[in-house]
C-alpha cells in the first residue's frame, strides 16, 4: 500500500522501491536504520529506469492528492457538488503535472529519489536544505576568517626570514598585482670587537682573562637581544632566557677569576659585570 512507501529512487540502471513492512522485524544487531524495511529492485537501461521512476512519482503524487481531497469532502454531499469540485480540481492537477515535469528536468539523469520530486516531503526537504545552506555559509565564513588569520601569520614569518637572510621567501602570499615588500637585512646579534677595547696589561695571564671577559660580555649582549625578541613561542623564549642566564653566569665566573688573580697579585678587584649590565639582576 502507498502508506507503507518509504522511498522511490533510481541510480543509473537501477530502480528501487523501499516499503516499510511491520510484520518483518529484523533481529540482527548489525541492522542500521529502520527495521522491517523491504527493498524491491529492478534493472534496465537508464532512460527506461528514469521513465518508470517519473511515472511512479506521478502515481504517488496522485495518491497523496486523492487522500487530501478525501479528507476535505464532507460526508453528505450532492452529486452536483462533487461534479463541481472535480471540475475545479482538474485545472490545478494539470499545473501540478507541469510543475512536476519541470522539476524532473533539474534531476540528474543518473539518480533521483522521492524527496527530490514534487511530493509532500519536498516541503520538509526544502526547509532542511535552507538550514543546511545557512550552516554551510557559517562554516565558510569561519574558514575564511581563519584563512585570513593564517595568511597574516605567514606574512609575519616571511618578513622575519627576509630580515635575517636579506631575501624575501617565495612563500610570501601576494594578492593580484601586489609587489613583495622591500626588506633590509637586519644586523641582529652580529658584532665586531675593536682592538682598542683589549687592555694592554703587562701581565699576559691577566690580559688573557680581560680579553676573555670582553668577548663574553659581547656574547651576553647577543644572548639578551635574542631573548628579548618579540613573537617567540613559549619553548624558544624559555630556552633563550636560559641561555642568557648561563651567559651572565659565565661572565660573572670570569670576573671572579680576574678578581682572584688581581688580589693574588696585590691589586684591587673590579666589578665590570655589574657596570656592564646596569639595572640587570644577574641570575
UniProtKB/TrEMBL annotation:
Coiled coil: 126-153, 237-264
Chief site of localization: cytoplasm
Localisation: Cytoplasm
GO cellular component, one term: cytoplasm
FERM domain segment(s): 1-67
GO biological process, one term: establishment of epithelial cell polarity
Pfam family, one: FERM_C
Keywords noted in UniProt: Coiled coil, Cytoplasm
Name recorded for this polypeptide: FRM4B protein
Organism the protein comes from: Sitta europaea
